[in-house]
Amino acid sequence: MSDANGMKISGKAWVYGDNVDTDVIIPARYLSTSDPERLAPHCMEDIDDVFASSVRPGDVMVAGANFGCGSSREHAPIAIKALGVSCVIAASYARIFYRNAINIGLPILECPEAASAGAVKKGDEMAVDIATGRIENKTSGHVWNAAPAPEFLRGLLSAGGLVPYVRARLERSK
Amino acid sequence: MRRTMVEAIIASHTKDAVFPGSVCQVSVDFAFANDITAPPAIAEFKKMGAVRVFDPERCAIIPDHFTPNKDIASAGQSRAARIFAREQGLKYWEVGRVGVEHAFIPETGNALPGEIVIGADSHTCTYGALGALGTGMGQTDLAAVWALGETWLRVPETIKVVMNGKPSKWIGGKDLIIHLIGLIGVEGARYMSLEFHGEAISALSMDDRFTMANMAIEAGAKCGLFVPDEHTLAYANARKSRDFTPAYPDDGAKYFRTVEIDASQVEPTVALPHLPGNAKTARECSSIEIDQVFIGSCTNGRLSDIETAARVLEGRKVHERVRLMVIPATYEVYNEALDRGWVRIFTDAGASVCTPTCGPCMGGHLGILAEGERCVSTSNRNFVGRMGHKNSEIILASPLVAASSAIAGHVADPRDVPNL
């Protein structure tokens, strides 16, 4: 669940370890399409065969370090977003995945404390404020604050993302 | 300010202040996608309201992943890419004339020393071998580059990797890079630039440098840069599609850290499932039986890789339990392999030889693994399910170790192959 502008989120946690790679998030064998609805059912299937069928809109993925390492495929954040996952919380992100998630509007938060072993367990009820970076584990009562996005990226996000940013630049140069 | 190599390249492409952590708007020298990433990039390009690419001579589509088209859906993706390429007049090569992108693009002089090259493919870092800042991005970022001829880059910190000593004749770029990733870890260079120095690096062939730069991303790096020398300039000048200006690091540049390796002590090295950083010596793994061997890919499908495999297999047979797939990365390599008799060596040994394509590397086609199967592969990733079933396994290795393993039927150190 989320509020009207998608900034306040509540849902259950799906918890994974370090180095969740993009081959696992969406295996290359499904990349003969880039249709989000056709990618979504295969998200994470090689390491979690119930995730795609059981995840509910608003749920949160929590993972360790280097989330999204590997291939540049934007299909990975697209598949996660298409399932209705409201945000990813990880200790750190691989750089291409980080750019891709921002470009397609999948909220991602970097918070090593929330991502540390045992801080969040599978099925814990989470409440996340994307705007402030406040992460609450309602099941355990713990609260953490994610690092804010770099200033440059906040500018890109406030322009509505990369597509509107480029569109505006092209229109100005006409 | 004294600059590292990545800082020098970025500084020559931006008006912004360049220091580690700063964000710069940079001009891009070459930007491309493949048959998987081009169709969604084209869709984003249109959403941006873009009409023409910034310069058709500096934009390309390389159909290499699911080609020759493996099924109807892939054929549709290739067709969409082909139609856009023709509309835009951008660089495009058809099946039969193309190759695996990161072997083909340098071969055709489309990535050059000192340049910034952006590809919608993570192994775009391969061009670091030429002293180019090649880096991978997603399809939306690539579409923006096609539209504007620019992108934003955060200036990375640099890890200086110094490889001293003379490696033994059994050691190639693949052993050195797996050894390094084993040392620093799969996120040891996350967001950073790797910059290679030392006498062991200077002595490496261009093919070995491409192999090492290719796997910089497997340590999380944005790029893996080799300082241009006479090998680099000879390669680039013989193939260049445009003029270029090499960039060099300054003496006394500030590095985030320095990693020193005695290359004379590195042994034939493999990476066990399921991370490229799970480095072990091939000898430690010689009890591991295998079902398949793949020699090819943007990591190790170049001329010297195929030559190495042919020398091992000449007069020998692939183990009866093993399937060996040899896939030269480009037609230039394929034709040389024909002319020099290597293709016949492979087929006499009982191997399959296929047309240039990414093939089984990322589970596309031409060698998918069944449940429980294990493959020694010269490619760059051994993630869960990468080449097939989620319960299959990939062991990364050099062409020398891969060919030796194909004969032995298990992971094999080339020093243990009789009379090699």
**What is the makeup of the main sheet of chain B?**
5 strands, parallel
The protein's oligomeric status is heterodimer
State the share of residues found in helices of chain B, binned by percent.
Answer: 25-40%
Number of strands of chain B: 18
Number of strands of chain A: 7
Low-confidence stretches of chain B: none
What do we call the CATH topology of the largest domain in chain B? Aconitase, domain 3
The CATH architecture of chain A would be Alpha-Beta Barrel
CATH class identity of the largest domain in chain B: Alpha Beta
Mean pLDDT of chain B: 98
- Overall mean pLDDT score of chain A? 93
| Total helical segments of chain A | 8
Q: What's the shape of chain A?
A: globular
The fourth-level CATH homologous superfamily of chain A is: Aconitase, domain 4
Characterise the protein shown here.
- The complex is a heterodimer of chains A (174) and B (420).
- Helices cover 30% and strands 18% of the residues of chain A.
- With 174 residues, chain A is an alpha/beta fold.
- Chain A has one domain (8-147): Aconitase, domain 4.
- In chain A, strands 4-3-2-1-5-6-7 form a 7-stranded mixed β-sheet.
- In chain A, a hairpin with a 4-residue loop joins β5 and β6 (134-137).
- Chain A is globular, with a radius of gyration of 16 Å.
- With 420 residues, chain B is an alpha/beta fold.
- Chain B has 2 domains: 5-242 and 251-261, Aconitase, domain 3 (2-Layer Sandwich), CATH 3.30.499; 269-412, 2-Layer Sandwich (Aconitase, domain 3).
- Chain B has 14 helices and 18 strands.
- In chain B, the strands form 5 sheets. In chain B, strands 4-3-2-5-6 form a 5-stranded parallel β-sheet, covered by helices on one side.
- At the A-B interface, α5 and α8 of A face α2, α3 and α5 of B.
